[in-house]
Design a protein that fits this description.
Two copies of one chain form a homodimer. Chain A is of the alpha/beta class. Chain A has two domains: 18-255, Aspartate Aminotransferase, domain 2, CATH 3.40.640.10; 258-353, Aspartate Aminotransferase, domain 1, CATH 3.90.1150. Chain A is 36% helix and 16% strand. Chain A has a seven-stranded mixed β-sheet with strand order 2-10-9-8-5-3-4, sandwiched between helices. A three-stranded antiparallel β-sheet of chain A has the order 11-12-14. In chain A, strands 1-13 form a two-stranded parallel ribbon. In chain A, strand 6 and strand 7 form a beta hairpin.
């Protein structure tokens, strides 16, 4: 087998190797059923254990209260961008901290009224707004924000406060730190950063929203949360294989001590790397220090030629996925839950030594 | 490893074992990249080869003309039920041959006007309508049908004709027989019967529809074909792992000689089984003979107790997935492309011998 890479991909991204090994072991013969899970009915007792196990592991991790439920959907965060205004009503207030928030508010505006109450665009999306920056209209239907901005490398350190129902796209920092779920009406996340492979969206939703639909009666049934909620996410065939991996990943986080423990590890990894960047004569972090992401570390070198040379050096050293997104340029190290500390240490050393 | 089951599941269903073995071999180390494909960017050169390879294999299989293109989406056929009227316009004509057609027309009616021009409901969905049964309104926006009815075990032998744009849900007989794609404006299929794992929808669409959106401007962007078509199905992160398996499955069909060859094999398998059912003193096929499905063989025994005893006997003999859907009862053998002839022969023998 080829030596395993140090994987800094932004998503789809590194998965815990122990999880991949379990998937590998069971791929042809899931729990001694003589079949792959991919060949088994989503209505089977075996898959029922998988999906209920995945919900249970996430419920334990986040201490999800009885007022909320976990759903698995398809279509990525992008489908949620449409479902949110269709289900919660037009007139949402959006905090725009980057590419994905921009898309979320644009989709909401396609459907009806939506308010962009703050935008970091003019500042190159380098910062997260403070409470003083935000004038949340009292009559908005909900407040939407993106907790972590994969492309720009910024992250909310605390949730924005208002009296509105709170909706959060947690795609790129899902299950990476403790969150008080009871403060949210809706949390959603594409799985492909911290939680599993691409093709599953995890939704944690207040039952008062998921169990009643009061929007436009012309809204397609498949776009209403109630349709899937009433059927335990099995209104139609879900991505069974992806949900299995989410279960394994969530159980892996539990085995490491849960969200508190993984958060501590994520803080340590990020600190190591930001320290090297800040001390480096040729590097500058992209995000303002107070809004730095623990998941995606974005930085520049003092010339594009040097960035290119460093990327080539990293590739030689078995480290991949470090090229910055085209909207920011430079470099980006995505250091999600499953990226081992050793990989971050490797990158830190390579960067420290790269002075020429 | 547990002995591999004879898998008659209706979907998710049997996958070719050679495909599963390739997936198993490459699971931890995709093409010597030192990563699982699930950990690789959907923007990588490696995944680009996967998705383009999947499109190419399907294009070769169906001889898809330049006027059409292949897209990969999420959300199952159920999301297509909504997208079709949103993109092609309200006022579609629906032929209702079972559970999935019923859902398709119901979703279309949620969104706007839709015409159910024929229904097999009163006849227990036992038959496929003939040309004489169908009065297609000339001013309908499109004609929609479901080529194979997984639950009732019926299948269109030829496509219905009209002057309208033709739309077909081929979820349960996709890549199982030759189809003249040029006759269709839109073909769609959930992958989880013949083509791959659950969590990917394959769409073959006329570019005149996929490249222009002329529906209601309030339609969410993510619900417009043009959004994904312009981005080669990569507007947002697709189900990368599922698309890889679809590529492998489509290449496996090609290696067996293509759709003509697999169709012949499917005919042989179905004939073997229907012959045993028809000759059996205690069995009756559910579907009318002229509309029998090559994919899902539905039948009853003369008592529920006997059906139960036969199912128990099959389980002992390593044959699974044979219980009929609750809407029909009795037994159902799903014998998709990847179900080996040997499995069907096994079932035929067990059924022949089960006379008590």
């Amino acid at each position: 087998m080829t030596e395993r890479k140090h994987n800094f991909n932004a998503g789809p991204a590194a998965l815990p190797f122990s999880v991949l090994k379990t998937v590998h072991e069971q791929l042809l013969d899931f729990e001694e059923n003589g079949l792959s899970l991919m060949e088994m009915s989503h209505r089977s007792a075996e898959f029922d254990e998988v999906i209920e196990g995945a919900k249970a592991a996430l419920t334990t991790l986040y201490e999800i209260p009885d007022t909320h439920e976990v759903m698995f959907m398809q279509g990525g965060a992008s489908l949620q961008f449409a479902m949110i205004p269709l289900n919660l009503g037009a007139g949402g207030a959006y905090i725009n901290t980057g590419t994905w928030s921009t898309r979320a508010v644009a989709e909401a505006k396609t459907i009806g009224v939506a308010h962009e109450i703050w935008s970091g665009k003019d500042g190159g999306f380098r910062r997260i707004p403070t409470a003083a920056d935000l004038a949340v209209p009292a009559d908005a239907t909900y407040l939407h924000y993106t907790s972590n901005n994969t492309i720009y490398g910024t992250q909310f350190q605390t949730r924005p406060t208002s009296n509105l129902p709170l909706v959060c796209d947690m795609s790129s920092d899902f299950i990476s730190r403790p969150v008080d779920v009871s403060a949210y009406d809706l949390i959603y996340a594409g799985a492909q950063k911290n939680a599993g492979p691409s093709g599953v969206t995890i939704v944690i939703i207040k039952k008062s929203i998921s169990r009643v639909f009061s929007g436009d009666p012309k809204t397609p049934k498949i776009m209403r949360y109630v349709t899937q909620a009433e059927k335990g996410s099995m209104y139609n065939t879900p991505n069974t294989f992806g949900i299995w991996i989410i279960k394994l990943v969530a159980e892996w986080v539990l085995s490491k001590g849960g969200l508190g423990a993984i958060h501590t590890e994520n803080q340590e990894k990020a600190e190591m790397l930001y320290d090297v960047i800040d001390a480096h004569p040729r590097c500058t972090g992209h995000a303002e220090v107070t809004g730095r992401s623990l998941m995606n570390v974005t930085f520049r070198m003092d010339s594009e030629a040097r960035e290119k040379a460093f990327l080539a050096h990293c590739t030689e050293q078995n480290m991949i996925g470090l090229k910055g997104h085209r909207s920011v340029g430079g470099l980006r190290a995505s250091i999600y839950n499953a990226v081992p500390k050793e990989s971050v240490a490797n990158l830190c050393q390579a960067l420290s030594e790269f002075r020429s």
